[in-house]
Amino acid sequence: MRRCFVCAADMLGPSDRHLAYPNGRVRAFPIACGACGLLLEPEADPAESRAHLAAQLTGPVFDSDPEAPYGLDLYTLRSAATGHGLGVRPCDAAGETALRRPHDRHAARGTLYALDGAAERPVSLGLFCRPAALEAALAALAVHAAWTDDVVILLDAAARPPAAMAAAGFPQGTLRVGARPLGQEAGHESGQGSGQGSGQGSEHESGQDFAAQRNALQDLARHPWMLQLDADETLAAEAGRRLPALAALAEAGDVVSIGLGRRNHVDGVLSDVYPDVQYRLNRRSVRYAGRVHERPVLDGGWPRSLITLHGTIAHQLDRAHVLARSRHYERLAPGRGRPEEEAALLRPYGD
Question: Between 3.90.550, 3.40.50, 1.20.140, 1.10.3470, what CATH number should domain 123-346 receive?
Answer without folding.
Answer: 3.90.550
